[in-house]
Structures are given as structure tokens and as C-alpha cells.
Backbone:
């Protein structure tokens, strides 16, 4: 292999390198969670190799892009992806214990981002708002999530903003869902089936929480096409269990977890080796995404959910200060939503 003359970040491939990557990929597909699909892809790869179908690909990034497109087209799985690295990849055993120094660095980086708990506040009308950019592991984010839930504990409705959330730990999804349900009986949230070990891991709400539970009050989850993986599970759990409404746009549609496999010094593949199975529906959101209860552009989702919360709270006919605050907040949020709609139309080039 040699660095590409036209692109310093790419590498030129010879026939031996290309065949080595393709052969390793075909073999590694044995670990794919859907064996029938794996066999179909393997047959296609072998046929193409025999007919010289990849002979015109001389760049490493081009090979990664081409194979990713083919893998996803044949499987319908957006998680199945071949990656190219211009830097040689290390040899890491999948069962190896994590390096303590690496864990320390990860925790420090996560802490600097406040564990991706980006905003926590009380919106007008006593509506809580929590914006999460990911679901960091509970050993990292658990205390901060408890603090966030404590800050919104006395609000009358709660909005979780997952529009820019790329996922993370299923254990943290279960932890945060636990705040929305009573301690007893526990609620069965999700199952993850792992094909490599033929085992199923069940996820339930937990009986003990360090913060106050948020019960019997309206909950809204904001979503977008960026919402992915564990963030989709949180939205799906809330929706299927009828604990709240999902507001925004259909999510990206990645339900099946997996891991990376090293194929070559410069190539690795991410491959789902597990399958999410919701105990209520018997299926998941893979490919389809989580479809909102209320479909609106992601740019207007927050104002829409805020307005829904205010109207819901007014229907309970509160009195005194609570009613005055709701009546004052309602027209402000309506104006904000109208401006957001006008801005969206203007950006799209439509009439205002």
C-alpha cells in the first residue's frame, strides 16, 4: 500500500490488498446478527470477486464507500458499514479488559462535556426541559442525571430534547426511563439478543434511584433525523408504554447494536451482532425509525411540545399564580412557534 498522490488522506490499493479486505469482510459476515442476509451478501461478494468486479477500485476510501453502499443496499441495515483508516489500526482483542488510563481519559472528556447533559431548565409555565446529546454510561452520568431530574422534579410537565442525540448506553436509557415509572412493579423496557453468544439481555426499570421520580405528569420527547440508537430506544420506550408523546421528525432508524471488527491494517467494519426486541411490540425501530405521535419539523418541535404542555396544564383548570403564569406563557410560545414556522418557510424559499 502507498499514500495516494492526489489525496494525502487516502491510500492506493493493489490487487492483493483489495482481495485481502474483501476476503476478510466475507468471512467476518459470519458474525452478522441476521445469518440469511449474511449468506446473501457473502454470495454476492464472492461472485463479484470472481468476475473482477472490484478491479477498477484503486483507492482505499473508494473501496470503503463502495462496499458500504452495497452492504447497506443488500441488507437494508444502516449500521453495517466499512471504514477506512489512513493510520494503521491496532490489534485489540474484543474480550480484553479496558485500559484504566483509557477509561480515565474517557471519563475526563465526558465530564468536560457535562456527560452530554447540555441544558436543564424551567421553561415558562413551569415546564421542565432537559437536552441530552448522548446517553453516557451510568457510571459516568448517573449522578448528573439524578441532579438534572432533581432540578425539574417540581415542574408540571417535562420535555426531553433528543433531536441531536446520537445514542450511547442502553443501561443509561433504562436508568433515565426508571425516573418516569413507579418503583414497583418494575417495567420491562427492552431486550437485546446477542447472536454471538445466543443470549438475551433484558432491560427493566430499576427499583432504587438517587433522585426523585417524575410520575403522573406529562412527558414529551423531541426527535429528528439525527436521533439515533439508544436515543431512539428512549423515545420508543416512552411511546410504546404510553408514558409520553414523541414530537418532531422520524428518527434515523438504528436499533441493532454491534461492534467493530478489524479486517486489515487500514480497514474495519462495524457490524450489528445483536437485535433489539421490544417486549410490548415484539419488534423494534430498525430501518423505520421512531415515528412521532406529532409530526412537525425538528426546528419547531420544542415550541410545539411546549405549547402542547401548556394547553394540557390549562385543561386541568389551575387557579391563582399557576393559572396566571400559564395564561401569560401561552401567547409568548404561540408567537415563538409562529416565528419559527415563518423562518422555516423563508429558509425553504417559500412565501411568508
Residues:
Amino acid at each position: 500500500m502507498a499514500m495516494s498522490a492526489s489525496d494525502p488522506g487516502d491510500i492506493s490499493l493493489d490487487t492483493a490488498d483489495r482481495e485481502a479486505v474483501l476476503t476478510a469482510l466475507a468471512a467476518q459476515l459470519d458474525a452478522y446478527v441476521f445469518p440469511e442476509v449474511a449468506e446473501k451478501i457473502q454470495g454476492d461478494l464472492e461472485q463479484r470477486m470472481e468476475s473482477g468486479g472490484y478491479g477498477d477500485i484503486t483507492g482505499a476510501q473508494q473501496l470503503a464507500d463502495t462496499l458500504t453502499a452495497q452492504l447497506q443496499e443488500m441488507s437494508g441495515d444502516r449500521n453495517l458499514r466499512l471504514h477506512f483508516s489512513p493510520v494503521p489500526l491496532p490489534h485489540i482483542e474484543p474480550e480484553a479488559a479496558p485500559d484504566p488510563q483509557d477509561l480515565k481519559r474517557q471519563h475526563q472528556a465526558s465530564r468536560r462535556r457535562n456527560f452530554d447533559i447540555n441544558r436543564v431548565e424551567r421553561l415558562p409555565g413551569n415546564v421542565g426541559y432537559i437536552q441530552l446529546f448522548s446517553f453516557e454510561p451510568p457510571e459516568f452520568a448517573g449522578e448528573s442525571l439524578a441532579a438534572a431530574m432533581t432540578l425539574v422534579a417540581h415542574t408540571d410537565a417535562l420535555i426531553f430534547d433528543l433531536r441531536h442525540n446520537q445514542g450511547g448506553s442502553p443501561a443509561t436509557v433504562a436508568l433515565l426511563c426508571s425516573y418516569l415509572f413507579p418503583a414497583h412493579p418494575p417495567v420491562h423496557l427492552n431486550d437485546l439478543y446477542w447472536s454471538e453468544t445466543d443470549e438475551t439481555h433484558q432491560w427493566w426499570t430499576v427499583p432504587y434511584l438517587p433522585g426523585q421520580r417524575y410520575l403522573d405528569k406529562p412527558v414529551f420527547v423531541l426527535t429528528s433525523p439525527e436521533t439515533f440508537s439508544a436515543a431512539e430506544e428512549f423515545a420508543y420506550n416512552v411511546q410504546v408504554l404510553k408514558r409520553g408523546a414523541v414530537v418532531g421528525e422520524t428518527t434515523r432508524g438504528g436499533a441493532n447494536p454491534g461492534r467493530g471488527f478489524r479486517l486489515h491494517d487500514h480497514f474495519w467494519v462495524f457490524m450489528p451482532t445483536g437485535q433489539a426486541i421490544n417486549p410490548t411490540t415484539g419488534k423494534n425501530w430498525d430501518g423505520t425509525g421512531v415515528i412521532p405521535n406529532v409530526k412537525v419539523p425538528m426546528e419547531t418541535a420544542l415550541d410545539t411540545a411546549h405549547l402542547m404542555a401548556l394547553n394540557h396544564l390549562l385543561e386541568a383548570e389551575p387557579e391563582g399564580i399557576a393559572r396566571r403564569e400559564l395564561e401569560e406563557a401561552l401567547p409568548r410560545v404561540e408567537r415563538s412557534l409562529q416565528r419559527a414556522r415563518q423562518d422555516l418557510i423563508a429558509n425553504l424559499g417559500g412565501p411568508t
